Amino acid sequence: MTALPKLGIDIGTASIKLVELFPVGKGKWKLGAIGSEITPPGGVLGNQNNLGVIAAAVGKTVKESGAKNRRVAAALPEEQVSSHVVEIPLMSDEEVKQALQWQVEQYIPIPADKAVWSHEIIRRDEAGGGMEVLLVAAAKNLVDSFVRVFDMAGLEVVALETELMATARAVVPADVPLSMIVDIGAKSTDLGIVRAGQMVFARTIPTAGEAFTRAIEAALGLASGQAEEYKRTYGFDTQKMQGKITEAMKPVMNVITAEVRKTGDFYMSKHRGEQVKLVTLSGGVALVPEVVNVLSGLLGMEVAVGNPFNRIEMDKNKTSQLLGLGPFYAVAAGLAMRTS
Ligand SMILES: Nc1ncnc2c1ncn2[C@@H]1O[C@H](COP(=O)(O)OP(=O)(O)OP(=O)(O)O)[C@@H](O)[C@H]1O
Ligand SMILES: [Mg+2]
Q: Where are the membrane-spanning stretches (predicted)?
């Protein structure tokens, strides 16, 4: 089955990102359109009256990018989704859905009748070890709000998944047995464990890009716009501003690092013999100068920059225009790479 071209649209708290891809072979794509816009305050999670405002911003992103397709794969914010790997006895694919139906409530924080859930079989051990199923659930009204936003923007949602599932597809090489994704956005950092290309564990912490900016504001007595600019321009470069920006951001980085380590340790304590050997960094904060080296140093582990553009053909102009922006577009690119 050849995949159809589609738009991947990531509505983040800070910005909306769009990537349009045309499949050109197995695991290869050609870039159609790409672009981003600032997300209006409140986002999709704000009150219902806000949906029209978000829809207009999504519509603007599509229009200005020049995208031709209207079929969209979208991501639900990680902190609003519960994903669990459930172990069940060996059974047929058809039986799994039924079996889960009676168990779903014990894994999700909302009543089953107010939730939308789906599952994916991720491991099947014919030798008697049973099977592992990834169960993903979200509140029905959240899903409805997302679908409405795209509907109002004249788009059709053909797939919904989580931000980390999309990122895993876009930036984690399938031949890495066990790795971790760290997506540092504006308000939240999403941490995901990926086993052979498949997301198997996810959590979110409310410390991300805005926390770095606030730390600079407080330490140097700057207005937030100026602090944001210093963060983007100097980042963790100790040679700039006598290292003051780096110093200010360090405590925030320590919090994130500790959570990354905790997440990896937690997973490995439950799965003896499996070892996280690589961290892939994505999200807007991955663009902050030197952040990759700092994280790698603090973790004592290899940290790669998540770049979805490796597998996307584009002309030379676009390549140079998008240089370094891969991690920012990782979720949107991963969504557009879905085969269904
Ligand atoms: N060019 C850049 N250089 C440095 N930092 C950047 C750059 N672009 C964005 N950022 C930072 O990345 C953060 C936003 O990242 P991103 O766009 O991934 O967030 P989001 O997806 O909208 O938010 P969230 O995932 O929390 O909902 C901001 O804190 C911003 O300062
Ligand atoms: Mg994001």
A: none
